[in-house]
Amino acid sequence: MCWLSYKDCAVFLCAKSSRLLRSCARKSICRTRFRRQKPRSGKPHSGICGTRPPNSSSFDDAEQLADFLAPNLNIDVAEKQAILEELDVEKRVRAVQKHISAQLEIAEIQQRLQRDVASQFSDAQRRAYLRSQIKAIQRELGEAEAGSEEQAQQLRKRLEEANPPEAVMKQAERELKRLDFIPSASPEFSVIVSYIEIIADLPWNNLSKDNLDLDQAQQILDR
């Protein structure tokens, strides 16, 4: 507010004022950013404000809005006190706006991380549930055999002992997981088992000592 004139009105001192355009702009920015802190659920982020967001129409100017928001921000008491002690309205509003923006950014990052973790966890749960259901269906149909699980464990042990390169091991593990979904009587089951057995039998880490002497090789060829 900008005070234009004063006059004595019997008991009280009256003043004529005019709203500053810059103050209105600051109030609009604060309102907009504070509204953004409400997620789709309608509840405020716990990291921004400890109370429900106020109705924007409840405040006539940026000073009132800033004075309401400052004590409710989740910041240190000393920071709140510093904001409220600031006599310059524009600086006070700017400080509140700065804290809201910073806390909003932190809250959005936290929400994004929570969504990512929840998505990964849900996907792992879904896969585990589907595997258990497939095994149950196979048992009901008489397609599941105890020997197939034991065979898969033995193949996995042989792979670990062979210690193939990482890319080869990754592919072999992928094929091993497929065995959980294929009946042991299926021709594809035998193909996968043979494929993994070949990988496990290859001498990945057994190196031979080669003689690279060209003169000796020439003598052997001339015999």
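The record above closes out task 2.4. Task 2.5 opens with a second protein, given below.
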Amino acid sequence: MEGGRRPAATHRADGHAGSGPLPGRGAGLCRRRPPRSRWERRVRGPGAGRRGLLPGALPEGAWPRPAPRHLHRRGHGAGGRGHPCLRHRALGRGAPARRLVRDLHPPQGLGWRAVPVLHRDGPRTRGGAGQVSALVQPWEGELKLNGLRVHYFEWRGRGQRPLVLLHGLRDSAYYWQDFANRLLDEFHIFAYDQRGHGESEHAPGGYLVWAFAADLAAFVRELGLERFDLVGLSLGSRCAMAYARENWHRLGHLVLVDMGPQMARRGAVGLKEDMTSSASRPPSAFSREDALAFLRQQWPSLDGPSLERYLRNAFVQVDDGAYVFRYDRRLADITTKAAIVEIDFLWDALTRIRCPTLVLRGEESPILDEEIAARMVSSLPDGRLYVFAGTGHSLPRLRPEEFARVVRAFLLDRPPPAP
């Protein structure tokens, strides 16, 4: 070691950390299946790796997965048991965060944050009035992508298929907490705060769609995702189209949620006025109680710990103690003249995307109207459309159960559920 510094940790095929670069690493994926660990034999059973984890699921070998990032070799089991530091932290016993970070093997980047995690072993329980209880809390990490510090979440359940989720304008990655929990039996899920949003850095270079797509390319490269499914909502849909234009061969499925290459006129005019006025007036300030009440109204399905985490992801506390939204107020640029130059590029992108693609539209959405949605599907070589009756733009929030059913069926190549 030079100057007392440890060499950068890298992933070996057995899931533990080594020092120095790995020859022929292949973007973090193992060409051969690594030896199964005691954790794998205990949690996934003796047949793991030779059959699908769920009835009707694809064999594991059909979907490349990220290089394993197990915990310290003491392992973690099912049902919430795991690394002693995690148990102490979750129970508030003050385990040192430094030790927790040291015992994790992060991807290349800035490393993991010390946060509690809950693992489940069995179906999720549901409370009354359609509420979801015992939600799995994601891991958190930070990466350096294209010169920016980017914060992300990772939901680890039983599923092995990589799924990347892109949030919309003025939102953050924790938007996907409810949806991710509904798909943990089939998928290993990642979502990051896009530049200028959530806990990621603001971007002095601007917010054109090419920059967002470059961040996505860097993100999946750092995590070693060679093939994955991709879901993009609103702004995330535009980012997904731009990325898939040249990288569709890396996508198993693509889902574009209520946003096309251009907005319907009604939505474009309203959003432009809203963004322009919000950029010129002071940010809205909330008390802590009001901010939590706002999130609770938006997401009645989230439990208390999830609302608290969403508060930290979407809001920041300023000097006077008030809470304001974290997003960069210069994001108005992407809804005014800057977005015009992207329209032709994105329409052309749709004609080049050859992976199975699902366009989702809210029947009453002002953002994606019937005409633009139909043109999108006709432009896509393998496109299809699903319309959510009687609802608007933010489909994962407005119709969480139906949205999860439709997306799951599409990603697993099953027939669409009845409306």
